[in-house]
């Protein structure tokens, strides 16, 4: 597996995760994962956050237990700043907004999460900011800043406001896809955190080729 390293020090790796690669084993697949790849280089590596299989972009990996605990606390205290770029279906009416809606489990599909009426189990606080970057025919290109880190948060919240992420086979399987994109149209564009020397580090992932083909640059 070829993985591009975007940042590295003696404790932390930031990589450019490709779409279509699992970050850790789901116990049903034998394919190599990001964690497998990391542990070949650094046997004590641990994940501190996750990206869905079809999501691309920047992702942090702790090389050791000390770094894992250090980064985990930053995530728990909401000190880590993450920015995603995505295409959503339809024309967002507002140029920017905040979705503040707790997320629980879907009563119909154990793989899915749900915001709003019908959510089951523990409802966990979830806040997502968004800003329109470009309006296209049938789609809107959006910058998204999740303030919390719930499972599928961006996908669930965009669906909640009736503008689901394009090409999302789980939350909007019959929806259209932009030309040139055949996978979940969600990219982790940047992440900002402190390293163990308490220096603020911001790492950015290049825009995916299929996003560029739509004429965003």
List keywords for this structure.
217 residues, alpha+beta, Pseudouridine synthase, 10-stranded mixed sheet, 3-stranded antiparallel sheet, 4 helices, 15% helix, 35% strand
Word description of this protein:
The protein is globular. The mean pLDDT is about 95. It is α+β, with helices and mostly antiparallel strands and about 220 residues long. It has helices spanning about 35-40, 65-75, 155-160, 210; strands at about 5-10, 10-15, 45, 55-60, 80-90, 95-100, 105, 115, 120-125, 125-135, 140-145, 185-195, 200-205. About 35% of the residues are buried. It has one domain (about 5-205): Pseudouridine synthase (2-Layer Sandwich). Strands 1, 2, 3, 4, 5, 6, 10, 11, 12 and 13 form a 10-stranded mixed sheet that branches. Strands 8-7-9 form a 3-stranded antiparallel sheet. Strand 12 (about 185-195) and strand 13 (about 200-205) form a beta hairpin. The two termini are about 30 Å apart. It has 4 helices and 13 strands.
